[in-house]
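Annex B. Sample input.
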Amino acid sequence: MIAPEGVDPLAFEVTGKGPLLRGESAGRGQDVFLCHGLSATRSYVVHGSRFLPRHGFRVHTYDARGHGASEPGADGYDYQLLTDDLGRVIGDRAGDGSLVVGGHSMGSHTALTYALRSQDSLVALILISPVFIPLTDGGPDLTRWDARADALESGGPSAFGREAAEGIERAEYRETVERLATERAALHAHPAAVADALRQVPRSWPFNSMEDLARLKMPVLVIGTGDGADPGHPFEVAERYADAIPDSRLVTEEPGESPLSWQGGRLSREIATFLNG
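Annex B, continued. Sample output.
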């Protein structure tokens, strides 16, 4: 089924137990819920592409608690709370048919946590640039997230953008990351809440071990990102997810190309091909 061209998004609000969440739905067809990454907004999953709503999918995106136009989370920011919020959005917006959940980075872990909770309700899962690996001994340096929170609080969007681009060697990628990070930081109605999330979410575990991923029953699309452009989302992590998930497909950009996760139209086409396959 192909939905009519020019499908306009319709804004929604979800209330109830938890902060008020604001989002939008667009298109007709199978329900697809997409969650954005930490410090981003709903505009930064497929980057404004309308390909999915125009080709048989009803796409729902929303600003996570404390982000964008949504209200702060009085009880904090961790993956269990983020997943509860996704459940509220699904309960409010989903139709009677099958549904798909997915997301980028923090959003991918939120979607994954929901999938582990509610396997029977899903027909597919989309994980874009996952980053979490459960490590009991040491693990990644999380102080970079504290530095980003400090930069946002003390210097605003421009300081946050500069901090987010630290460590990227190629100048063109560093400039793009700084620009995008600065732009998205300016979209938050509650920047202090985003700073809180930057400190709390990376210290939260969406699942306990890689063996948990073997329990997933649905087909899963894993989208990896080349390390040169986005070292914060190592390609090795995407490979480990794909290896651990029984029914998975791993895709990425060609060497030297801009990350697939940054290309909204092409990313949407990959998702549609996967879901229609």
